[in-house]
Amino acid sequence: MSAAVDLAAVSVRRGATPIVHELSAHIAEASWFGVIGANGSGKTTLLRAVAGRLPIASGSCAIFGEETSRDRDARASAIGFAPPIERLPASLTARELLALAGDDPAIQLERNNALWEALGIGDLLAVQAGQCSSGMKQRAALALAFARPTRIAILDEPFNWLDPVAAFDTRAALAVLVEEGLTLITALHDLTTLCGFCEAGLVMTKGRVSLALDTPTLRAGREDAAGFERDLVAALR
Ligand SMILES: Nc1ncnc2c1ncn2[C@@H]1O[C@H](COP(=O)(O)OP(=O)(O)OP(=O)(O)O)[C@@H](O)[C@H]1O
Fold first, then answer.
1. 214/150 Cα distance (integer angstroms)
2. Which end of the chain is more exposed for a tag (fewer CB within 10 A), N or C?
């Protein structure tokens, strides 16, 4: 399958510190790609760099075949990205945030109806971010990744803070978007979502790929969830 995002020997620094080291990954179009790893292994750093929020120090990052490693703006405009909840400006309502990030909210509602329903965005539109709980902020942040039409979305631990119903419904809505052609890249700590929903992925250890997860491995994990969890936890230790 053709690649939506092709990473070759990508390295990323935080300040002067190298965090991601020569990481390569082929992320197929219209698929859900999961990145897992220990706390501090570099998942957020990698995802922020691919989404154009951090520079790529070296290596190649092709988006639909176009090299973008030196062009953060090209990556940021090609990829929908959910901001970290602590960065949402406290004085703005969800409606104002969505309007600033993309299309008129009425157009977003029409385009993203099922996702907005799953996230309960209708109830949040008039609420200022500063008045929101963490889960409410996370709902707004996820909707912000889809404020403009996008073929690729990067969501860093999207189910953090969501209640079980919202997490279940949001995961289902995202899976439908992937079926319809979205390329979805998520950092996850949740092995059930990884093996149940992702077509491929990788395990990061200290900024490197310690294990590539292909479709047969993840499909096998659906059949034997306990065995998959045991093997993956062993790989993560
Ligand atoms: N702003 C920063 N400046 C310097 N170093 C940072 C910064 N943010 C993160 N780091 C360092 O980068 C490394 C990777 O952090 P990162 O947030 O990418 O990990 P992660 O895998 O997403 O972790 P977690 O699972 O805890 O979210 C860590 O050693 C962390 O201390």
1. 25
2. C
Is residue 181 lining ligand 1, measured as CB closer than 6 Å?
no
pLDDT in tens, 90-133: 999 999 999 999 999 999 999 999 999 999 999 999 999 999 99
pLDDT in tens, 79-92: 999 999 999 999 99
Q: 41 CB less than 6 Å from ligand 1?
A: yes
8 Å CB contact between 158 and 174: yes
Give the CATH architecture of domain 3-82+149-164+182-236: 3-Layer(aba) Sandwich (3.40)
| Predicted-complex ipTM score | 0.97
Domain boundaries, the chain: 3-82+149-164+182-236, 86-144
Q: Are 11 and 59 in contact (CB under 8 A)?
A: yes
| Ligand 1: nearest atom to the Cα of 189 | 25
| Per-residue burial over 135-174, b = 16 or more CB atoms within 10 Å of its CB, e = otherwise | ebbbbbbbbbbbbeebebbbbbbbbbbbeeebbebbbebb
Ligand 1: does its nearest atom lie under 6 Å from the Cβ of 52?
no
Looking at ligand 1, which residue's alpha carbon is closest to its atom 1? 14
Ligand 1 lined by 91 (C-beta under 6 Å): no
Q: Measuring from atom 24 of ligand 1, which residue has the nearest CA?
A: 39
- Please work out whether the CB of residue 75 comes within 6 Å of at least one atom of ligand 1: no
Residue with tokens 């965090």: 19
Is the distance from the beta carbon of residue 14 to the nearest atom of ligand 1 less than 6 Å? Answer: yes
